[in-house]
């Protein structure tokens, strides 16, 4: 299936996601306004600053439209800031969110930039070979509802999870040459549109 | 095993700031205004560049109390400036936990020959440049992010434009150069050979490149974005204008929608007076901050 994938391009590392998706043969649309959402098969919300993106999501109902699509099972993948925006509960924050995943997220949960790190992550759903994962002022999921599947943990903290059509990672698969996470998300798109 | 302070992690934060606006702030109140407007980071300072320019004297790292009070009130990254070559100011800033250090020509240089060896630090650095050679020297020293110098505190974008155009045209020249000419190009521009090779091969810098120095309006920000920068720093341009809240928001919008003239027109309306600008030719050599850096 020819896949048309949107990448939210308000702020952050949207270009890196676009490059990976192009390498994987997708048609990529940068999403800055609601009309950009038309005809997409899936959406990626990149890393960046969740508050900065949240402000702009509130302009002209862009966020509300994404919420609607997410509720109608459009596959959405959030990395880092994207994980924060997808979560229903953000600890100690009343910032704007898309309110889609039954997860409780903590921002900057590993600390400030000085505590940012990279590591080899075991992700059973992606095979036995570990995934190099880059965490930058990263969040993690403090709690998830029973309907949320945990794909990976780091030191007991949930850093990768899926709830039906929604996928969220605390790390940045767009910054490493290993494209298994994006391929997994494209698999979700196939599942949704081919059935 | 977690690996901290790697180049990937340092450049990675800059990647996350792209398409965003980093705003100079001097108080927690200003930091909150910046965050509310959608800034992707703030630069914590004691004085904005236009005040440093007006007051003269030696400009140094800000009082840690100011930086900490700003770090406490916002959730976005907080940057702070150290003087060129002043690695102890940088050590202090790192110990405070700031997210990025700007080794900045806005402050009075502490060393008139050498910059900080930025590889020594786990915290990432951003440095200014006027051309490709300068950018690559700073990256060679460990900078994980580059910005144009522009002429800080003037509200006049002409120097930032010049510096960005120079960097872009230097890169274009390298990308069509036969390989045997690249060593001499490296020698001429005073840049590490390996980085010259990188630019020749990829046609871009190995790190994120922002615009800084003189950006005062939404149109200025969009101009720099269209010239090819990854995001913008706004120093004096916001809090020295009539209506900082509205201007900050408008510049954020303009940086995202830099290619959409209709949106740019909309956000440029009713912002009140921008900061009063300075014509560059009226500055004496000593007043030109961009000439600091080696």
Provide structural commentary:
The complex is a heterodimer of chains A (195) and B (294). Chain A is 25% helix and 31% strand. By secondary structure, chain A is an alpha/beta fold. Chain A has one domain: 3-Layer(aba) Sandwich (Rossmann fold). Chain A starts with a strand and ends with a helix. With 294 residues, chain B is an alpha/beta fold. Chain B has one domain: Aldolase class I (TIM Barrel). Helix content of chain B is 43%, strand content 13%. Chain B has 13 helices and nine strands. In chain B, strands 8-7-6-5-4-3-2-9 form an eight-stranded parallel beta sheet, with helices on both faces. The longest helix of chain B is centred in the middle third of the chain and has 18 residues. Chain B is globular. At the A-B interface, helix 1, helix 2 and strand 7 of A face strand 1, helix 1, helix 2 and helix 12 of B.
Could you list some keywords that capture this structure?
heterodimer, A: about 200 residues, alpha/beta, Rossmann fold, 12 strands, B: about 290 residues, eight-stranded parallel beta sheet, about 45% helix, glutamine amidotransferase (chain A), pyridoxal 5'-phosphate synthase (glutamine hydrolysing) activity (chain A), Class_I_gatase-like (chain A), lyase (chain A)
